[in-house]
Amino acid sequence: MEFEEYVSARGQELVRLGFTVSGDYQRAEDLAQIALMQAFRSWRKVRGADDPHHYVRRILVNEFLSMTRRRSYTEAPTADIDPQHTVPDHATGIADSDHLWRSLATLTARERVVLVLRYYQDLDDQTIAGLLGIKPSSVRATASRALAALRKTRESHRVDERLS
Predict the structure, then answer these.
(1) What is the distance between the alpha carbons of residues 140 and 148, in angstroms, rounded to a whole number?
(2) Contact, 57 vs 70, CB < 8 A?
């Protein structure tokens, strides 16, 4: 497979993976572009791999994890909003989705990547371990901790809703 064919076939999938791990469309495009740029530099090696897509996904995941270690990753402009003066959104589905994204943002980068690869990319523990360079038991432990943290934030969210 030539590089151009690969990009046509898998480019959007890489952007979706980037979005699900980062939660930001612009970062997702950057991650996909960086992964493809690095793959292009060594395309003969990538093309010769048993699974070239696995190779490029690993580049993207490693770049995301590297990006989260940089100080600039955590800096994001926000507006000061007084929660007492906000209008409640009646679109429950949108609110729930937003809460899920916020909850995912509280996880560590590795926890988020493990959940995304497991539940959005439908990869098994062995494949995830190979992508991250860790043991399958570490994948299971990380997923377990991440799901426990999400359950905890979900429960606190339900309590907050009842109180308001």
Answers:
(1) 12
(2) no
